[in-house]
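2024-03-11 09:14:02 DEBUG pipeline.ingest accepted 1 chain
2024-03-11 09:14:02 DEBUG pipeline.ingest length=149
2024-03-11 09:14:03 DEBUG pipeline.predict start
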Amino acid sequence: MKSINIKGKQYVMVHERIKEFWVRHPDWSIETHIINIGKVMLKGQEKEAVIMKCEIKDENGVIKATGYAREVEGSSFINSTSHIENTDTSCVGRALGLLGIGIDTSIASAEEVHNAILQQKQQKQMPQDMQNQYDNMKKRINDNGDIPF
């Protein structure tokens, strides 16, 4: 699989992971679900935040891997117009990584690492109320990987 270099580490992009998945498991499925859409404050403005879950199931419908992602509308250039699509891609990439596809150096995909770098830069400017909401949301994920909303 092709990878790209980000800060000295190689990361596999989600589309490469998806292609490999279908080669390995043509009878399996990739399903994404919106877990929650809510409002958060970003730089003093109310924005939409979305949490999505990806389930990878075998030919018998047994879940083999799960991945979660969260994005906030307007938190990055791509999220200004496509935060739901970006969240969808990220949760698929994480689930495929947990399945063992494209994880030579990290479960994170190239897209996820790039977005995380952008968010770290912006987090320095993140209002405390948004940071508290984000921290509380992370704490609510239980041991089974489910978000109890």
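2024-03-11 09:14:41 DEBUG pipeline.report The radius of gyration is 16 Å.
2024-03-11 09:14:41 DEBUG pipeline.predict end
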